[in-house]
Structure to design on (288 residues):
């Protein structure tokens, strides 16, 4: 980084200098002007370019950075000029893309607090994309306990902001996937408690985009994008009892990544819960 620094040089002028003079006869003081003394005002003579240390770079830790959403978050953060690291159970991403070589990959389990604390060294913000499906007990552990451990460790390390990719409530689905939603909501509660001023929860519905599975690329946007356009216009249906949440529009994974990175780095981004409509709105705004 190069900064222009202006060097100021004094030049003489005929401006008189004002000073205090003691008045012995009255014991007081009065102002007098001594025309033999001159002030030396600043005049610019030259500018010099000097090297100064660059500002501290924001360091972002992405939990689950090698997954579908997490990989897009990593790429978005790198495009924004951030220093990016990731912690996941499998470690380095299998994606053979140039951006992946610029991420510092950590392998570890969020249920192990020691590994997590090492990965948090020097981190200023965290985005968690960790989640999964399975039995109810497993879903609670991976969606709830793992994220709660991360939130607590980040708080103890002095991390400024924490963004959690949660999930929209799909009504009847929360009864069928009780462990999933109970875990998500437990993590949300912990986040809003620990990060009252820097905790942001994103609640997207179905997330579409190009998903890489091995050497295959699955274009989920083929039906996800048209559905988003239609359901955006059906927002009132979202308020219907029981079935309303089924009308929650899908959202592009790039939009989720963009909003997540902005929320993690923009100090004026408001804390709290951002639903799918908020994600769509923020993604259309220009980044600061």
């Amino acid at each position: 980084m190069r900064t222009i620094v202006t060097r100021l040089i004094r030049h003489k002028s005929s401006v008189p200098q004002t000073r205090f003079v003691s008045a012995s006869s009255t014991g007081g003081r009065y102002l007098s002007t001594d025309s033999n003394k001159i002030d030396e005002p600043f005049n610019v003579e030259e500018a010099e370019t000097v090297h100064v240390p660059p500002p501290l770079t924001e360091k972002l830790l992405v939990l689950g950075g090698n997954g579908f959403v997490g990989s897009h978050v990593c790429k978005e953060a790198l495009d924004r000029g951030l220093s990016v690291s990731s912690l996941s159970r499998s470690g380095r991403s299998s994606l053979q893309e140039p951006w992946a070589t610029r991420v510092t990959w950590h392998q570890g389990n969020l249920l192990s607090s020691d590994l997590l604390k090492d990965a948090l060294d020097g981190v200023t913000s965290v985005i968690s994309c960790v989640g999964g499906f399975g039995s109810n007990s497993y879903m609670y552990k991976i969606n709830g306990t793992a994220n709660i451990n991360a939130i607590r460790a980040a708080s103890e390390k002095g991390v400024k902001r924490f963004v959690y990719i949660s999930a929209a409530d799909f009504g009847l689905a929360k009864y069928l996937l009780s462990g999933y939603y109970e875990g998500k909501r437990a993590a949300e509660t912990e986040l809003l408690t620990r990060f009252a001023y820097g905790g942001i929860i994103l609640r997207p519905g179905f997330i579409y985009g190009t998903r890489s599975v091995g050497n295959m690329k699955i274009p989920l946007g083929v039906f996800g994008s048209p559905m988003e356009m239609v359901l955006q216009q059906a927002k009132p249906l979202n308020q219907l009892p029981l079935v309303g949440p089924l009308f929650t529009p899908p959202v592009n994974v790039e939009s989720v990544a963009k909003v997540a990175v902005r929320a993690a780095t923009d100090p004026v981004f408001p804390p709290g819960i951002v639903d799918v409509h908020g994600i769509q709105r923020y993604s259309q705004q220009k980044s600061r």
